[in-house]
Amino acid sequence: MFISQALAQTAGSAASPAAGVEQFLPFALILVVFYFLMWRPQAKKAKQHREMVSALRRGDKVLLQSGIYGTVTKVVDDAVVLVEIAEEVKVRVARASISEVLSKTEPVAAASKDAKDKAGKEAQDEPAAEDDK
Question: Which of 5, 28, 83, 114 is the most exposed, fewest CB within 10 Å of its CB?
Fold first, then answer.
């Protein structure tokens, strides 16, 4: 009875469209920062790893994720590679478990071309050596 009711309440202000954007802006900014600092570099690294693993050939020296060094002896299929980790010790590993290719081998076609070029140069050098005698 002695308490009077508060009749002077504040009226709610009309929400403007700009107020919704201002509330959403910090979340959008956080998403943009996460994209450039986390998602994009991670996707780029994953793509490089997929390309590296798909380009594996016999004779490549590799490092497995377990820390074991080995040499690729056979590419079985798209998911499995045979790796020699010691003399006469070969293990089947998933391609995805290869973390790094330490040294690449040259393609067979390029190696045979180099051998033909070298043999051709040696054949050209031999007659010149006979002329000197």
Answer: 5
